[in-house]
Every structure is written in structure tokens, then in C-alpha cells.
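call fold(seq) -> C-alpha cells
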Amino acid sequence: MLRSQRVEAIEQYVYERKKVSLDQLCEAFNVSKNTIRRDIEEIVARGNIRKVYGGVSVQGNKELLPFNERNITNLEAKRRVAAKAASYVEDGDIVFIDSGTTTRHMIEFIKDKANITVLTNNLDCIVSAVPYHHIKVISLSGILSRTTLSFSGHGAAKLLESYNIGKSFLASTGISIESGVTNSDPEEYEIKRVAIKRSKQTFLLVDNNKIGVIALLTYCDLKQIDYLVTDAPPPKAYYDYMHSYHRQILIADSW
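ret:
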């Protein structure tokens, strides 16, 4: 294995395990500690992985918490972000609403729109839309995850491929300039990627404490997001990055 290939493999190994020791890396890649230390120096310089005592860990990594626990965290901020994103939904739109504790509030703020079609794998969105006969709901197939209260699996992504989507409203576990838009659930990875591919416009809904966080899987680059919707201004580097790709950052209104 070439050194460049080994370095990439080590980085992926650390991402998958969140935290590993030098001894683990030496055994896994059959190299000396001196070699591992040199490889680690290169990986750490990229900014996504940091040194810890006896090994390395993912910088700012965040694991997926149970849905109920995530849902009560920053609840007001999440509702404000959902309201801001929902203001971009227009009568007659075909939208995809992702699973997530921020996107779940979207129905509340689009209930007065006319002739809306909502594609979703979000169980909360499906239930919330039931009283509103003017909102047509198309549910993705798949297995219900009780961790995320969403339907996922290969069948869900394949079904989504069939539709033309005007606007997608996506959630993530974390975002960073270096690692892009990341998520902790491999089952939902492909759904998110398909939604971006099939949409004319993409909105990413995140409360501010997810900025700078890196989760297990990157499902798109930040430059693939048309609108980043959050509750407080992110660091200037994010404005510079988004502006360079003609993308916008939307800050949720205060209540």
C-alpha cells in the first residue's frame, strides 16, 4: 500500500471508531509506531482529527443521540430555524422534508400554504400533516428507525429517485468547511444524497451548535447547499466560503 493510500485509510479508520490508540493503528496497518506517528502528523494537520493521550480522536465528533433527547435540545432555536426555512415554501411547491428534530417542525409553518406536496421519510411530518387536506403527503418506504423516527433503507432512496423535487429541507448531525455536511446514521446517508441530486434548491437546517461538528459520514459538500439556515451567525469563514460559491446563509428571526 502506498503511503498516501495508507494515510487515507488511517483517517477513515479513525472516523469510523471515533477514538483509537497508536497501538491499535500499528496493529491494524502493520507498521511501526514511528511510521504511524508520521502519518498521524499529516492527518492532524488537516484539522479534522486531533491528538489525545496515547492516540487520536475525531475533532468535535458527535454521535447520534436518541430522538427524544435530541428533540428537546435547543427546541426554540430549532423551531425558529424551521420557520425561516418554511418561509421559502410557496403555494404549489413539491418539497422533500428530511428526518430530523429541526425539520420535523416544518409542517407547523407550511400548514397555510396551498397545494403543497410533501415527500418525506419523517414520521413526525407524516403525522403532523394528517389534519391538513391541502398538503399531499408521499411517504418513502423502508424500515422505521426508532432512533430517528424515520423510514430508511435502499428502497426509500430508490423511490425518491423517481420524483422531481423543487426544494429539499435537510438535517445534519454537524457541518464543517473541511468535512462538509455530515450525518451519524448510515441508513439515511443515501436518502440525503438522492434528495440533493433530485432537487432544484437545497436548504440545510441546523442550529448553531452543530457548526464545526463532524459526524461519521459526509453526505455532501457545503457548496452543494443553496441555503444554510441557522439560528445565529456562524464564523466569518463560513460566510466567505458560501459567498465564494454564490450560496446564502439565512439567520432565523428572533421571537
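Confidence is low (pLDDT under 50) at residues 62-72.
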